[in-house]
Write a structure and sequence with these properties.
This protein is mainly α. It has one domain. Helix 1 runs antiparallel to helix 2, helix 1 crosses helix 3 and helix 3 packs antiparallel against helix 4. About 25% of the residues are buried. Its main location: membrane.
Length: about 110
């Protein structure tokens, strides 16, 4: 169950990062509220996952899901640049996440 909590926490992190961007520095009410709610949910689920998973594994996977997910949202929804170097960097993050998962005993 810890992995379900962790992946869900990572997905919520993507949502709050996108909402934070849309909040325009917390000046737009609805995206600001969405950011706060999803941020709380993401942290709560991360803390549940950390009951079982090692800190290094849980935190690395959580931030990696958020980083790669936000990168994809930026490209697919916000029209940000998808240069070969940015794609290569995101690919390396994904490779690191896979290695972290494979090396975890939990």
């Amino acid at each position: 169950m810890a992995w379900v909590y962790l992946v869900t926490a990572g997905i919520l992190e993507i949502i709050w990062a996108y909402s934070m961007k849309k909040s325009d520095g917390f000046t737009v009410l609805i995206p600001t509220i969405v950011t706060i709610i999803f941020m709380f949910g993401s942290f709560a689920l991360l803390s549940l996952a950390m009951r079982t998973l090692p800190l290094g594994t849980a935190y690395t996977i959580w931030t990696g899901i958020g980083a790669v997910g936000a990168f994809l949202v930026g490209i697919l929804i916000l029209g940000e640049l998808a240069s070969p170097m940015r794609i290569a960097a995101a690919s390396r993050i994904i490779a690191g996440l896979v290695m972290m998962k494979l090396s975890s005993s939990a």
